[in-house]
UniProtKB/TrEMBL annotation:
Encoding gene (name): nadD
Lineage top rank: taxon: Bacteria
NCBIfam families: cyt_tran_rel, nicotinate (nicotinamide) nucleotide adenylyltransferase
Keywords: ATP-binding, NAD, Nucleotide-binding, Nucleotidyltransferase, Pyridine nucleotide biosynthesis, Transferase
Matches recorded under Pfam families: CTP_transf_like
UniProt pathway annotation: Cofactor biosynthesis; NAD(+) biosynthesis; deamido-NAD(+) from nicotinate D-ribonucleotide: step 1/1
Protein function: Catalyzes the reversible adenylation of nicotinate mononucleotide (NaMN) to nicotinic acid adenine dinucleotide (NaAD).
Species of the source: Imperialibacter roseus
A GO term, aspect molecular function: nucleotidyltransferase activity
Protein name, per record: Probable nicotinate-nucleotide adenylyltransferase
Coiled-coil region list: none
Matches recorded under Gene3D superfamilies: HUPs (3.40.50.620)
Amino acid sequence: MDIGLYFGSFNPIHVGHLIIANTMLENTEIEEVWFVVSPQNPLKKRSNLEHEFDRFDLVQAAIHDNYHFKATDVEFHMPKPSYTVDTLAYLTDKLPQHKFKLIIGEDNLASFPKWKNFNVILENHGLLVYPRPQSNPSGLKDHPNVKIVDAPLLDISATFIRKQIKMGKSVKYLIPDSVNEMIERKKLYL
Ligand SMILES: Nc1ncnc2c1ncn2[C@@H]1O[C@H](COP(=O)(O)OP(=O)(O)OP(=O)(O)O)[C@@H](O)[C@H]1O
Ligand SMILES: O=C(O)c1ccc[n+]([C@@H]2O[C@H](COP(=O)([O-])O)[C@@H](O)[C@H]2O)c1
């Protein structure tokens, strides 16, 4: 089966992530999207990063009603920080029946040449890219293994959501209700 692996910090998951996953499902050859929660992005500082178990629970709460979406904690058992090429090698070895493609936002396409062994990812898997406002242009946009979907820009970020919560403001509609309830119950992002 063709599977879209959607790697992310998901700190927290928001409606932008869900729209991106569904858009890829509807407009590419993938049949499922697997959300891979990364304990630690190698290029990001740890500030305001909630525990990976909590972020994973929030992802599960967000996707529970969509049988095309799955969440995986595979990177929790791997060395940190979380290098995507290593996770892809592990998953390809364990599940050779599947073909994995990467789902990323356009901001990550711009920084993609800084990723570990990015050429291996590009040649062996390929990228499905969702456009993002204020992203730097990338020389990779015309690569044959890079597909940029034509879809509405979403100016939503986890950074904005974390700031709103910290200021005591509601983030209703920016995140699913199930995620909002869990954040409140666990007192996250305060
Ligand atoms: N609004 C968006 N438009 C396009 N891509 C997005 C958007 N939000 C997130 N992504 C992509 O989804 C993946 C996971 O993103 P991530 O969990 O870091 O969310 P984020 O909103 O970018 O978080 P933060 O604000 O904390 O950096 C990345 O590939 C990112 O580029
Ligand atoms: O493998 C790398 O070198 C690498 C460099 C930067 C980011 N990544 C991964 O890209 C994913 C998206 O990161 P983020 O924090 O933008 O959600 C996340 O799973 C990171 O581990 C991976």
